[in-house]
Amino acid sequence: MSAENENVTQQGADTTEDAASEKISVSTKDLSHEDRKMLKGIFLHSFNIFAMYGGGAKAGASGFLWALAPAFERFYPDKERRTDAMVRHSSWYNITSNVGTFCMGLVAAMERENSQHPDFDTQSIDAIKASLMGPMSGIGDAIFWGVLRVIAAAVGMALCAQTGTILGPLVFLIIYNVPSILCRWCLTVLGYRVGSNFITKLEEGGLMDLITKLAGVLGLIMIGAMTASFVKFNCAITIPAGSGDPVKVQTYLDTIFKGLVPILYTLGCVKLLKKNVNVTWLIVGTMVIGLALGFLGIC
User: Fold this and answer.
1) pTM higher than 0.85
2) Of the four listed, 69, 87, 112, 125, which is most buried by Cβ atoms within 10 Å?
3) Is residue 20 part of a domain?
4) Polar residues bias located where (predicted)?
5) How far apart are CA 102 and CA 245, in angstroms?
6) What pLDDT score does 1 carry?
């Protein structure tokens, strides 16, 4: 009897492991043709979900409805039920577009269940969608806006500054968009296959906070490196020292803190941005200050 229990337990464990490995798959090979067609439609529609972004309580709703249109058309051939589903999702939606497809795939899976089970609680769909906005946006903003965009910009600007080649903007677009496109597709499939358990496990294990924190630290490192590499200031002022060589002010500045003026200027710009100063004025002001300092022979 004990051996039988052990065999049953082992089989159950194997089944659980197989189910877990299946859940985290982003392959569409075992999905039906209709599933693959629908997911491709959601994926393609996701690229312009913010093409029309209104304000107020329904901000982002039109884009989300557009992205989920393939799912609504498939699961609700009846016009009345399809209209009800679209009305339910006519609410505020705002997730970083690069990772928002996970929510779309998840909602599509839940709408499939709703279409098959009349007693399905539709409020759970809205609750899951709302609960995903915070954590998914936190990860998406940290990785794509805080890290990947900064790295792509650093590489692109370095190519432009050092070689003057037109490849700089192209490299920027490639570095940023290739991972973004892959992420969109994989998360579309993952959301449809895995469901809400994936995010729940990440939050319970503390991985969500860890990923966000690590991405934020990496982004700060990249911003610091870019400040040191691209914000240049070389003071040309010298102080006569009698019969000896004149004293260079820049030498003393480097002794105090190398790159002191660039980092102070960068922090000053950050302070102004936090006070809602328009970034255009900061750019124009930087150009004017640079021209003035160069004209006066200060740097």
Assistant:
1) no
2) 125
3) no
4) 1-14
5) 66
6) 45
